[in-house]
Design brief:
alpha/beta; Rossmann fold; 2 domains; six-stranded parallel beta sheet; about 35% helix; elongated; binds adenosine monophosphate; Phosphoglycerate kinase; ATP binding; Phosphoglycerate_kinase_sf; nucleotide-binding
């Protein structure tokens, strides 16, 4: 369903509360990667270019103790934002109270203000993360309009997304949220065929929901990574010391039966004696020998996966094909990523932190149609779930 977008709002002279996702990696006040700040710029820029006042809310990490507050203030993020926007940004080191209210009331059209980390409220009974009704109502009272541009938290019902939305007459999506909904939504609900899903990563249990939802929609599901070997066990193959979730073997059997030849498992693997880059390793087909663990998919599997990908028109990729952090077991992930980058006539979508990291390492990121900013949120979207943060945005 089409959602109200920030560009549908008349923001002039208005105090626009915006939930952004500024949850960036930060250490000793230094931002490791400012991608998420950059991703929020179009929405912020739109509001200030149209003479609105942008009041930004975000969480940063998890706040469990008073100590955490020192490391997880949004002040450095506000400073970086000011550099990126090339204009002053007011930072308020509070999540409520007179200082915040006065700063908002003193804003002029086109001004930008960053409120302190919303999760500072979590020290007091998890008010942000448990969507305390009083907090959402209070934050909503600070502005005239509400825009949610934080896809990364859309799978959570927090005070700064669902809480504020439910206390406003309407809530609009920001441009980043709009883009995420468009690409992930089209892939799941209206994909161009052949539609291929590539699923990897450590655990079957994390991806079961996605596999179940995509069995009907996708033409092929290529499986790699640690979760492969639970499927191997389900097929009666030997798995040696490979990762396995024994309590999920029956479920894997069910999926194999349901999916038929849509589900493509690796035919060969790189196996090693230990979980170490320096361990003796080799390629084997089929059964994993005793004393070995499978840490990557093998060259025949890579060739088969590439063959399937060649004709794909929509591809969604989530999770590495092996232990890509170790160079000897990175090849499967890197080659699959490369094949994705080579597709010129397909919509390619990457969701999740590790696959995104692999895409960046490969330099293929610019060739991918859409790299989702939300790991957990994109998985839940692919599972076909309704995300509370999105449900709370007004339908057009
Ligand atoms: P996830 O967070 O579920 O996407 O899983 C990513 C992690 O899975 C990465 O840290 C990989 O190193 C790990 N992984 C991938 N393949 C394997 C494997 N065959 N055995 C053990 N761990 C793996």
């Amino acid at each position: 369903m089409a959602k109200l977008i920030v560009s549908d709002l008349d923001v002039k002279d208005k105090k626009v509360l915006v939930r952004v996702d500024f949850n960036v990696p930060i250490k000793n006040g230094v931002i490791g990667d400012d991608n998420r700040i950059v991703a929020a710029l179009p929405t912020i820029q739109y509001i200030i270019d149209n003479n609105g006042k942008a009041i930004l809310f975000s969480h940063l990490g998890r706040i469990k103790t008073e100590e955490d507050k020192k490391e997880l203030s949004l002040r450095p993020v506000a400073e970086r934002l000011s550099e990126l926007l090339k204009k002053p940004v007011t930072f308020v080191p509070a999540t409520r109270g007179k200082e915040l209210e006065d700063a908002i009331n003193n804003m002029k059209d086109g001004d930008v203000l960053v409120v302190e980390n919303t999760r500072f409220e979590d020290l007091d009974g998890k008010k942000e993360s448990k969507n305390d009704p009083e907090l959402g109502k209070y934050w909503a009272s600070l502005g005239d309009l509400y825009v949610n541009d934080a896809f990364g938290t859309a799978h959570r019902s927090h005070a700064s997304n669902v809480g504020i939305s439910s206390n406003m007459p309407q809530a609009a999506a920001g441009f980043l949220m709009e883009k995420e909904i468009k690409f992930l939504g089209d892939a799941v609900e209206n994909p161009k065929h052949p539609f291929v899903a590539i699923l990897g990563g450590a655990k079957v249990s994390d991806k079961i929901g996605v596999i179940s939802n995509l069995i009907e929609k996708a033409d092929k599901i290529l499986v790699g990574g640690g979760m492969t070997y639970t499927f191997y066990a389900a097929k009666g193959l030997s798995i040696g010391k490979s990762l396995v979730e024994t309590d999920k073997i029956d479920l894997a059997k069910q999926i194999i039966a349901e999916a038929g030849d849509k589900l493509v498992l690796p035919v060969d693997n790189v196996v090693a004696t230990e979980f170490s880059n320096d361990a003796p390793h080799k390629v084997v087909e089929g059964d994993i020998p005793d004393g070995y663990m499978a840490l990557d998919i093998g060259p025949k599997s890579v060739a088969e996966f590439k063959d399937v990908l060649k004709t794909a028109k929509t591809v969604v990729w989530n999770g590495p094909m092996g232990v890509f952090e170790m160079s000897n077991y990175a090849k499967g992930t890197l080659e699959v990523g490369e094949a994705l980058g080579d597709l010129t006539d397909a919509t390619t979508i990457i969701g999740g932190g590790d696959s995104t990291a692999a895409a960046k390492q490969l330099g293929i990121a610019p060739k991918i149609t859409h790299i989702s900013t939300g790991g957990g949120a994109s998985l839940e979207y692919l599972e076909g779930k309704e995300l509370p943060g999105i449900a709370a945005i007004t339908n057009k």
